[in-house]
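[User] Could I get a sequence and C-alpha cells?

[Assistant]
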Amino acid sequence: MLAVLGKFGVEADKYGLGLSCFYLIYHVTKDMHSMSQSFDPAMESNMAQMARNINELSKNISVMTGQIHMLVQNIQNMDQNIAKMGGDIGDISLSLHKVNDNMDLLTADINDMLGDTGTMAKNITTMNQAIERVTLDIGQMNQSMRAMTVTTGLMGRDMRQMNKPMRVMNTVMPW
C-alpha cells in the first residue's frame, strides 16, 4: 500500500497510516459501487432458481450415492456367485474331459464294430446267395415230388388195370 501511495507522490512517513486507510476505504467503496451497478435485478430470481436446482441436484446425488452402495453390494454378491460358478465350471470341465475320453473309447469300439459289421455283411450276402440256391433246389424238389406223385398215381392206375384180368381168374380158381 505504501508503494501505491509513493506513486502519487505521497510520502508514507508524513501522512502515515490515516491516509493509507482513507485510500483503501475509498477504493473498496468504489469497487462495491461498481459491483452493485453490475448486478442485474432479475439476477435475484435466477439465483433463487439456481439455489433450488442446486438443492435438487444435492438430493439426486444423495439418491445416487445410496444406489451406488446398493450396486457395490450387488457386485460383491455377483463376485461371490461368480467364484462359486468358477468352481462349478471346473467340475463341468473335468466331466467334459471324462466324456471326451469315453467318446474316444466309444469311437474306437464303434470303428471295431464297423469292421465286424462289414465282415458280417459279406457273410450274410454269402448266406443269402446260398439260401437262394437252396430255395431253387427246394423248388426243383417240389416239382420232382409232384412229378413223382403223378407218376405214382399213374403206376397205381396201371396196376389196377393190370390186375383186372387176374381178379377174374381169382374168382374162378379155388385157392
